[in-house]
Every structure is written in structure tokens, then in C-alpha cells.
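We give this protein:

***
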Amino acid sequence: MKYQTMYRLYNKNTGEHFYTRSAFERDSLIKGGWNNEETGWTAPTSGTAVYRVYNPNAKGGNHYYTASRYEADNLVKGGWKFGKIQFYGK
């Protein structure tokens, strides 16, 4: 099985941790003031999809991760923004 690096960042203003597999996204957030906490873990490149959705209405924004497409779709119906499949779990 292949694995990918999952980067972990921290926003001291909101107290939020953020996870991404994208080095570009990681670097952009670091430039925006997020703290780089390096590699959070390695995730498989296939398996159960984990979706990332974003609530732009929460103070400072809020990201949520779920393995349920149904849950992600319902959050989007409630005003959240759909991100993408962020990583896979076993």
C-alpha cells in the first residue's frame, strides 16, 4: 500500500489545527501566519475517503473532517463549503 504525508498546521488565533496533504497549501498557510507542525502522520493513498468541509460563518472559519459523504453533503446544504477528499483511511 502507498502512503502520503499529511501536514499539520496550527492557527494560534483560532486554536484550530489544520491537516492537508498539499505542500502548496501548507506553504501558503505558513505564509499567512499558521504554525507549521511538520508531519502529522502518513495516510494511505486509497481506502475510505475522508472529506474536508469548511464553515466560513464561524469566527475564524472552521474545518471539519468526516468519512461520511452524506454528512459532508448535508453540511454543504447548511452553508458549509465542500473542500475535497483530503485523505484516505483504512
Notes: The beta strands are 3-11, 16-20, 35-44, 48-55, 62-66, 81-89. The chain has a mean pLDDT of 92. Residues 23-31 form the longest helix (9 residues).
